[in-house]
User: Fold these one by one.
Assistant:
Number 1:
Amino acid sequence: MNFKVANIEFLDFADGFFDAIISVDTIFFGRKMEPTIAGLNRILKANGPIAVFNGDYQQGNFLASLTTNKSTYEIYDFSQEQVKHMLLKHKAAKELQKAFEAEGNTFVWKDLMVESFA
């Protein structure tokens, strides 16, 4: 697996260069969203995924730009309530670690830890 870092507005890569693209708190640095999305689509292989992690996906007409560029998308909104739930789940799993081990279910405990931000 190889990773590349680039300026989101000046993507100097060949068409279809990437299998997947991940943008963590960066896509909104592009000044114009539609050309930014078009550029990402250009350098992505056909049917390759783009994952965008950002707290405000409505910012900068992001969703409208996806539609304009004929991009399909799914939104996963990790709300504050879900974060609180996951933290509570993590705390409970930590407290029950010995019980899981005593039952021979350490693998279940490890899965709970991973699912809850371990």
Number 2:
Amino acid sequence: MTLLVDTSVWSLALRRDGSVESREVIALREALDGADAVVTTGLVLQELLQGFSGPKAKEAIIQRFGTLPLIQPDRQDHIGAAEVRNVCRRNGVQVGTIDAILIQLCGRYELTLLSVDKDFANAAPYVPFKLWGNG
């Protein structure tokens, strides 16, 4: 399985206090140890860099992400992500722009999304993508 890890899981995993050991954080650590492949996208990297402060945190994040394959959304992914948002909205589910791109990338590349964000679970019945722990 190849995981696309959402910012929510990375944020928990990178906390200095290490106080949160959710199933998702454990799955990320196991994947990074070789259990599964992990890929990322620039949007997740950007969100993490915006959320952590200080040069040490910045360098640690950049270094860690430098080893991960980077997938980049293209024009069709943005078109598909707009459709993801529209389908969800028609079904009463709010999905953010970045979340819609992540869903689209998972569908396109047959990735499994690893997240603790409930918005993805709410979207899952309406759009085709694999959500870790969901089924």
